[in-house]
# Entry
Amino acid sequence: MKWIEPFELKPGVTAVIGSGGKTSLIEALAEELGRENRVIVTTTTKIRPPFYCPVLTGATREDVRRALERSSVVCVGEPVPARNGKGETETKLEAPRLALRELAELAPYVLIESDGAKHLPLKAHKPHEPVIPEEARLVIQIVGASGIGRSIGSAVHRPETFLERLGSPGLTVQTIATPERVAAVLAAERRGDILFINQTDTEEDRRNAERLAQCAETLGYRRIVAGSIRKRRMECLY
# Structure
């Protein structure tokens, strides 16, 4: 489990928020943790049903308990119709009937996707976002390095909110999302315990991640991690 050590995961509820790899990180964490532990994956928002583990809907405690005897990782949620980016209706999962407290009694690790970002690498949050449960012992906030250096309009989910957080007149959706501007939005929102800068797959991405980490060093994160989920490569920057 060496590659996940920088995240300091401990038994209990972990919420994953932000943009640029939440679903992929939860899948990777569940896969790694599931080798030695039981893991429940769920959401406080809406997610696509995962393909890598059994999905339980309308589940009772006994249903979950039995499923975890057959598979070390299960997903628990309730089906809900939702529109995709093409305007088509698809079935997603929303928060389960069972309380998180009950899920945490059934498995030592509960991983929750607590945010949405429309598959974009950067995000600014509305006041009602993200939906972090009070049971969360750890909140991992993700930023996608691939969005740094792109225009705010092309890289950011909720670009208008991003510009509001920056509070600088004259900036538009054509303005570049620099590491300094991304850090300024993180400072204005200040959500997570650990900041994870994902998608550092090129030298430029790595340089941008280092600049962002330097800017975010004073924001009070317990740890700043950079790396690539795809390559299973992580390193602590601060």
Q: What stands out?
A: The chain has seven helices and twelve strands. The CA atoms of residues 6 and 48 lie 27 Å apart.
